[in-house]
Amino acid sequence: MPADRAAETGRPPASYVTRVLGEVPCQPGVPKPDAILIATDVHRQFGGLTAVDVAHLEVQRGSITALIGPNGAGKTTLFNLLTGFDRPDTGQWTFNGESIARMPAHRVARSGMVRTFQLTKVLSRLTVLENMRLAAPHQIGEEVYAAVLPFLWRRQERIVTDKAMRLLRQFNLAEKAQDFAGSLSGGQRKLLEMARALMTDPVMVMLDEPMAGVNPALTQSLLAHIRDLRESGMTVLFVEHDMDMVRDISDWVVVMAQGQIIAEGPPASVMADARVIDAYLGAHHDRPLTADGQSLTRADAEVSSP
Amino acid sequence: MDWSAVLGQALTQAVGIQAIIYCLAAIGLNMQFGYTGLLNFGQAGFAAVGAYAIAVLVVTFDWGLWPSMAMGILGAIVLALLLGVPTLRLRADYLAIVTIAAAEVIRLVSRSVTFNDVFGGSDGITGKFAAEFYALNPFIAVDPEFSGLTLGPLRYTRNDSWIWLAGWALIAIVLLIFWLLVRSPWGRVLKSIREDEDAARSLGKNVYLYKMESLIIGGVIGALAGFVFAASSQSVQPDNYATALTFFAYTVLILGGAARVLGPVAGTIVFWFLIVFIGEFLTGALRAGWIPDELLRPDQIGQVRFMLVGLGLMLLMIFRPQGMFGDRRELALDAR
Ligand SMILES: Nc1ncnc2c1ncn2[C@@H]1O[C@H](COP(=O)(O)OP(=O)(O)OP(=O)(O)O)[C@@H](O)[C@H]1O
Ligand SMILES: [Mg+2]
């Protein structure tokens, strides 16, 4: 598949992804033609509560995939598991063909899968610019031996700073570069976190509600950024509650409810799905979604898929 | 009251040997607590390892002073590894508990009767174990009649002059390396761990490794404090390495301003100036009859000066919580 893509260099990758995903049937856990992330039987229990119970999930390389679902569906927990911030009870997953299940979080990040947090984690008493510089990978000056010899890392630091300033300008944070990150507003923190994630040169970014609290005008420019990421070959998996936004930029939507994936498909078809609407609006409580919900929803999905 | 004697004594002590010892201990804590957010409550243990290494190896095992110092540094590294390996993956409080306990274990073992022949029990070890160091005294090399250093109000004896000079030179070297470290990308990773270690992890930083490096470097600087302590008096006593040493070092650090390279230097000078000044002042005031005898007895001065210093610290925390060198802007952020 990657060879395929290379052959299509003339074409924007976006249309390639749309075309390929258009041929994928709308079923939960459906295989993708070129999956960068493949997860199987991921299970996480908190006491008696099953937070995540994902039978199978694949994310298409180079796509923008939205992960949606009601509050408490297990989206953040799934992010935590995939990125090494939490341990699953069971489960295997590969990223870029390499098994990264149970790998420490920093090694997951180094392998190219970088996440942001729903509750932002900016480094308050570092400046915005330092937040950005920190994220740059392969820094010579991060070795304790090299740290005391500034001539070893000064050049790299300059390159890193240039890159950081470029990203900050894109994210409307350039004027804030010298301010402490702790002085940023909630929305600015979201922006900084996203820009910082991009400093790591990720292969895949996992954004947990990147738009929450960001004003509408800026949201539009952020959406444009996310599209740019896709154009540059990056894979984006993001959690979002705003359906308009999801419809606007995602190539594929995965719906979670009560830990399970209940539907998958292109935005238009998923949002027309009665069970997705139910899950969101909380209607039809008489209908089992957990007990044998898996088989039920699968059957339903097949019926409703074109 | 002889004000010039009181002030002279206070100034001499403000930059004296004790000040050097606590300054070094606080520099170590600054790396661990100020920059990395690690709560090492066992700095006294690291100092004890350094002090006992030179005393025991030279006196009991007939080693040279310099190889003994190397062993002391190695010992501090081993202690940091022992404390860090099981705790640095856990929440911050675990390190605090383990370090405070370990420092007490070290003190109790070294003063125990069982190891009397090695560590000298509760009396510790006295001997000429720093002779090799004092033999290098440059003042005597220049002037064989040298009897002590006088710099304005500062007065030091023959031997103290040399260890005083060497001590401040050591602090200068340590601070230079420290400064290079914390302003590098490596130091930036430490600060990010202090702020939010999950964020550091999410950016691919091996948090555990950096915490370990910080704990080791801070512990080795603590052992240097132990070297100065032991060498200055040519003796080690286990009870000098009790938790009070650690907490005075924290006081020095917070007084000067944590996460500031020069914080411990400013902190130690002010701390020792106040301790000595208040003590000397109270003694003089009692003698001059300014304070009625029923209010304060001479043997209570030691306690009262700490009470007054404590009061001063409280006022400092209220009116200048960032310490003398700190940046108020940084503290305001924590309110969020
Ligand atoms: N550390 C934890 N301990 C116990 N229960 C937890 C823990 N983390 C999450 N849960 C539970 O797991 C379930 C899934 O939580 P999660 O945060 O993954 O939801 P979410 O889909 O991200 O919701 P939201 O859209 O509100 O962010 C919730 O019921 C939550 O209460
Ligand atoms: Mg969530």
Element layout with pairings:
The complex is a heterodimer of chains A (306) and B (336).
Chain A (H helix, E strand, L loop, with lengths): L1 H6 L5 H10 L12 E12 L2 E12 L3 E5 L6 H8 L7 E6 L2 E2 L5 H6 L2 E3 L12 H8 L8 H4 L2 H21 L15 H14 L4 E5 L7 H16 L3 E5 L3 H7 L2 E6 L2 E6 L1 H5 L2 H8 L11 H12 L2
Parallel strand pairs in A: 3-8, 3-9, 6-7, 7-8
Antiparallel strand pairs in A: 1-2, 1-4, 4-5, 9-10
Chain B lengths: L2 H12 L2 H19 L7 H18 L4 H23 L4 H20 L4 H4 L5 E2 L4 H4 L3 H5 L5 E4 L2 E4 H25 L2 H11 L1 H6 L4 H27 L1 E2 L6 H14 L6 H25 L13 H19 L8 H5 L4
The complex binds adenosine-5'-triphosphate and magnesium ion (MG).
Question: In a nutshell, what does this entry contain?
Answer:
The complex is a heterodimer of chains A (306) and B (336). Chain A is an alpha/beta fold and 306 residues long. Chain A is built from 13 helices and ten strands.
Please characterize this protein's 3D structure:
The complex is a heterodimer of chains A (306) and B (336). Chain A has 2 domains: 2-122 and 200-272, 3-Layer(aba) Sandwich (Rossmann fold); 123-183, no CATH class. Chain A has 13 helices and 10 strands. Chain A has helices at residues 2-7, 13-22, 75-82, 105-110, 128-135, 144-147, 150-170, 186-199, 216-231, 243-249, 267-271, 274-281, 293-304; strands spanning 35-46, 49-60, 64-68, 90-95, 98-99, 113-115, 204-208, 235-239, 252-257, 260-265. Chain A has a 6-stranded mixed β-sheet, sandwiched between helices. In chain A, strand 9 (252-257) and strand 10 form a beta hairpin. The relative contact order of chain A is 0.17. Chain B has a single domain (3-123, 153-330), classed as ABC transporter involved in vitamin B12 uptake, BtuC, CATH 1.10.3470. Chain B contains 16 helices and 4 strands. The longest helix of chain B has 27 residues, at 207-233. Chain B is globular and about 65 Å long. In chain B, strand 2 and strand 3 form a beta hairpin. The interface between A and B is large, with 44 and 32 residues. The complex binds adenosine-5'-triphosphate and magnesium ion (MG).
